[in-house]
Amino acid sequence: MSPPPAAAPAAAIGWRGLSWLLAPPLAVLLLRALLQALADADSASLQPLRPATLVSDPAQAMWAAARPAALALLGVLGLALLLRFGLRPALRRWGWARLRPWVLALWLLACLGAGAALVASHLNRAGRQPLPAQDVRVLLVGEVPASARGPGGAEVYFELPGAAAPMRLLAEGQSATAFAPGRTAALRWQAGRWWGRWGQLTPASGG
Question: Which helix (H) or strand (E) holds 73?
Fold first, then answer.
């Protein structure tokens, strides 16, 4: 009659381990939702400025389209190799009981790092400073269809005065026909507290 009561501590340890596994990422998700709710509407209307990737042949276009997926695949492959050649031999040598505190500490540090990155990004965006408005020359325009993530709009590639390379920006809610290549567009933009630039493009009256 002794085995059944002994199962209770093992179940308690299992639930405790599951809570340590799930609670940190849930806290990060809640923090992300809170920071998104704190973002003001004017900040949400500004889109990030990114360097433009202009291609001259189909091979470059295919690589530019496949690069994010390729980098993600390499990351997954690296993690799989780390687990196969790092964690598995360590488990055989020292056992899970001795490795568990270290694995848990690394998991908590990763979640804390993700939370710190979210807070830093929020503070960076909240501390943006307006920059002088610019008239930019449109190079290319692409239509971005509406989706569950946003209303879509026109992705505009343009020359920014003083910039070494072309830039691109999503003109949210705008039609691609409003930005004719070779004409000008008005850029209202801001610089982040520490990094990055955000802006909003509108078609200029003249060009």
Answer: helix 58-82
121 near 98, Cβ under 8 Å? no
3-state SS, one letter per residue, for 165-196: CCEEEEEECCCHHHCCCCCEEEEEEEECCCCC
What pLDDT was estimated at residue 72?
83
Res 13 pLDDT > 70: no
Which has the closest alpha carbon to 141: 83, 106, 183? 183
Place of tokens 């848990």: 104
3-state secondary structure labels for all residues of 96-153: HHHHHHHHHHHHHHHHHHHHHHHHHHHHHHHCCEECCCEEEEEEEEEEECCECCECCE
Task: Please report the pLDDT score of residue 36 as a whole number.
Answer: 86
Residues 6+ apart with CB under 8 A from 17: none
Rg of the chain (C-alpha set): 25
**Which residues 6+ apart lie within 8 Å of 31 measured at CB?**
115, 118, 119
pLDDT digits (tens, 9 = 90+) for 155-197: 999 998 888 889 999 988 888 888 989 999 999 999 999 999 9
Asked if 173 contacts 151 with a C-beta cutoff of 8 angstroms, the reply is yes
- C-alpha closest to that of 181 among 134, 148, 140, 129: 140
What does each C-alpha distance from 58 to 64, 142, 143, 158 come to in angstroms? 10, 17, 20, 21
pLDDT one-digit tens code per residue, 81-118 = 877 777 778 778 888 778 888 888 888 999 999 999 99
